[in-house]
């Protein structure tokens, strides 16, 4: 019996079935999964009914609405749906998304950081090799290691559990990287690296263990309840979405240009829209307006094309293709920049030859003292910058600030738990004293920073 997977395309996801997830699609479909591009103006429990798994492969400068979150939560908990959330280095802040708001419902958050490891990697520190898979879980069965390419760390704030954790040599160290949750009848998996499953890229799907990891994740996401209901015929297979509106970025221009001189099939639009509040309605209307303006511009270009000769159309089409290739090339360079070394191999070898070791204990001591002084100066500058922050605007940001306090309190709890964890490791002899002191200092500084921010916001809220 096939398992149907919906890869969302309505939130500008960076992971695309037809572009950089083609090998993942081939792998899954060769193992009795059916992969569909999924687009809904507003995601509903009803529209997800035929799907077993929903994937958000790193939304990019797009946000999931509150109404959609409620519908997805109901689908997971009531229909036994499997939800896979994938992020990227920088988390929500780096991508201007709100994936954490979705994952928090199930006890998981994406941190706004990047996991680095200078000791254990496949050539670059942002391509860390991870080997810590505890506790044992079906997702990590048979895996000895993975490459956590360009990913952020996660935090557990509820009943969720981490199944892959960063190394002690990583930054941040001993932090959750892949987390799972089983809310009621459904299942949820979160990972801070969507790039682990990308095509033809170092640390992507071609990495030695990542095909097994992908199959493990998608197999586990089908809950026992969902499998039983499908056996009983409770859920019918979903219909494929043929509409031009089913593209990831609503870019109708290229489709219309291709079909301008041929027959264009009728477009089926769903008219049922569920609105939970005024803000959702306004957001939806603005999205519609943007789409209409986009179509208007496209139609105007088509009219202009139709008014010239056939030769001119062909020539203009070629120019457009060249322009598209150039743009796509630049976009690919930007997306890959975090994984490209700053120097070539030849430059690196040259630097190694020119580098001379310290010739005496005194020189080593000077270097160490200088490094320590620079670090202290950096910390002082950062503290001064924090002190110079503008006053908090209570009048217009009360709800936002109250939510921030709640989030900071959850983060504080996680950091305190982490501090307790490294203390246990140190006492048991699993961590040396230098590493312990370094990590303890770092965590205590983070605790002070969080408490200071909470105090500042709380004080401002009480005064208002």
What is the helix fraction of residues, given as a range? Answer: 40-55%
- Can you count the helices? 14
Q: Give the tally of structural domains.
A: 3
Order of helices and strands: EHEHEHEHHEEEEEEEEEHHHHHHHHH
CATH class type of the largest domain: Alpha Beta
**Beta-strand share of residues:** 5-15%
Distance between the termini: 60 Å
CATH homologous superfamily classification of the largest domain: Class I glutamine amidotransferase (GATase) domain
**Contiguous uncertain segments of 5+ residues:** 242-271, 309-320, 323-371, 384-388
Give a short account of the largest sheet: 7 strands, mixed
Q: Which CATH architecture of the largest domain would you pick?
A: 3-Layer(aba) Sandwich
Strand order of the largest sheet: 2-1-3-4-13-12-10
Number of strand elements: 13
Oligomer: single chain
CATH fold descriptor of the largest domain: Rossmann fold
Radius of gyration from CA coordinates: 25 Å
How does the overall form come out from the CA principal axes? Answer: globular
Mean pLDDT score, rounded? 79
Which structural class fits the helix and strand makeup?
A: alpha/beta
């Amino acid at each position: 019996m096939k398992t149907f997977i919906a890869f969302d395309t309505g939130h500008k996801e960076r992971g695309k079935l037809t572009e950089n997830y083609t090998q993942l699609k081939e792998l899954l479909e060769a193992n009795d999964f059916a992969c569909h591009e999924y687009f809904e103006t507003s995601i509903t429990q009803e529209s997800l009914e035929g799907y077993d798994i929903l994937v958000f492969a790193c939304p990019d400068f797009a946000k999931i609405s509150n109404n959609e979150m409620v519908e997805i939560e109901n689908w997971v908990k009531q229909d036994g749906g499997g939800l896979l959330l994938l992020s990227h280095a920088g988390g929500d802040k780096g991508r201007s998304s709100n994936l954490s708001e979705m994952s928090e419902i199930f006890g998981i958050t994406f941190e706004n950081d990047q996991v680095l490891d200078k000791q254990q990697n496949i050539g670059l520190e942002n391509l860390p090799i991870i080997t810590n898979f505890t506790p044992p879980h079906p997702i990590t069965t048979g895996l000895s290691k993975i490459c956590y390419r360009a990913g952020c760390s996660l935090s557990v704030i509820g009943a969720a559990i981490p199944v892959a954790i960063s190394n002690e040599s990583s930054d941040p160290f001993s932090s959750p990287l892949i987390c799972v949750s089983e809310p009621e009848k459904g299942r949820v998996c979160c990972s801070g690296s969507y790039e682990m499953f990308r095509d033809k890229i170092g640390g992507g799907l071609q990495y030695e263990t990542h095909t097994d990891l992908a199959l493990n994740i998608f197999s586990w996401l089908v809950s026992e309840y969902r499998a039983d209901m499908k056996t009983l015929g409770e859920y019918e297979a979903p219909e494929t979405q043929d509409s031009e509106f089913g593209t990831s970025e609503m870019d109708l221009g290229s489709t219309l240009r291709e079909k301008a001189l041929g027959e264009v099939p009728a477009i089926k639009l769903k008219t049922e829209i569920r609105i939970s509040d005024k803000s959702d309605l306004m957001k939806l209307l603005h999205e519609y307006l943007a789409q209409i303006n986009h179509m208007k511009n496209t139609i105007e270009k088509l009219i202009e094309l139709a008014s010239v000769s056939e030769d001119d159309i062909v020539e203009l089409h070629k120019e457009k293709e060249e322009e598209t290739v150039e743009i796509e090339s630049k976009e690919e360079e930007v997306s890959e920049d975090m994984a490209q070394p700053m120097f070539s191999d030849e430059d690196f070898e040259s630097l190694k030859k020119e580098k001379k070791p310290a010739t005496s204990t005194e020189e080593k001591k000077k270097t160490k003292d200088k490094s320590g002084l620079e670090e202290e100066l950096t910390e002082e500058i950062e503290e001064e910058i924090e002190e110079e922050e503008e006053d908090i605007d209570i009048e217009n940001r009360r709800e936002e600030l109250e939510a921030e306090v709640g989030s900071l309190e959850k983060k504080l709890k996680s950091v305190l738990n982490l501090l307790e964890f490294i203390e246990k490791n140190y006492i048991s002899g699993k961590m040396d004293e230098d590493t312990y002191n370094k990590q303890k200092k770092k965590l205590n500084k983070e605790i002070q920073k969080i408490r200071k921010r909470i105090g500042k916001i709380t004080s401002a809220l009480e005064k208002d």
